[in-house]
Design brief:
It contains 5 helices and 10 strands; from the N terminus they run H-H-E-H-E-H-E-E-H-E-E-E-E-E-E. It is an alpha+beta fold. A hairpin with a 4-residue loop joins strand 3 and strand 4. About 11% of the residues have low confidence.
Length: 221
């Protein structure tokens, strides 16, 4: 039988050995703080060595009215994507095919020199506010987002927009109006062939067979 005093001595030796291996209290507290801080960081490696990506918040770039000389990167960097483009000399793209390609809720129409990263003139609104059939006459239009729009898919007239600084449009050909010319864009339409060649990008007109200018549409939700 082991004497009681000997057992007591062994017990205290065991406690002393355990205490020697333990960190000081202040180190324990610091360790808890560090581990808690790491647990609240989503960009630090996990136990498996993987990191949780932090997704940046992107705000869609919007504006009211007609805008000139807009960098296309301003759109694509903020949530817009190009859904349609072709040169002004192209004929035959239907409105239905454009609507299918540009299926998101917002639509931005623009034109530019072919291959340029700057949109010469641009305007946007909800798609449901842009692709609204107007009355069958050369002066009809409707307004949305401080822009005057006209859309004719069932008659041979035009599709485009102009600034609300003016209340006049003449689509007997394709927006021949001379006031505020930089703030106008017009594409010929046909009931059988959809978009026809031409016609206007800002103050530049007569683009019916011109491949050096391009019509572009972006969309976003």
């Amino acid at each position: 039988m082991i004497p009681g005093r000997l057992l007591t001595g062994v017990f205290w030796l065991f406690l002393a050995a355990c205490a020697a291996d333990m960190p000081e209290p202040d180190y324990i507290l610091q360790g808890l703080i560090i581990q808690t801080a790491r647990a609240n960081r989503s960009d630090l490696p996990t136990e498996t060595g993987q990191t949780t990506p932090v997704t940046p918040t992107v705000t869609l770039y919007t504006f009211s009215g007609v805008q000139l000389n807009l960098a296309s990167s301003t759109l694509t960097d903020s949530g817009w994507s190009q859904c349609f483009s072709e040169t002004y000399d192209h004929i035959g793209t239907t409105m239905a095919s454009i609507s299918a390609l540009c299926s998101k809720s917002r639509m931005l129409m623009a034109c530019r020199v072919t291959g340029s990263t700057t949109l010469t003139v641009a305007a946007h609104a909800l798609k449901s506010e842009i692709m609204v059939e107007d009355a069958n006459n050369a002066t009809s239009f409707h307004s949305a987002n401080n822009v005057n729009w006209y859309y004719h898919a069932t008659v041979e007239l035009a599709w485009g927009f102009f600034s609300t600084n003016d209340a006049n449009v003449n689509n007997s050909f394709c927006d021949l109006t001379g006031t505020y010319p930089d703030y106008r864009m017009c594409w010929h339409t046909s009931t059988t062939a959809g978009l026809k060649g031409g016609w206007r990008c800002g103050a530049t007109i007569g683009l019916n067979s011109d491949a050096t200018w391009e019509r572009v549409i972006y969309h976003a939700d």
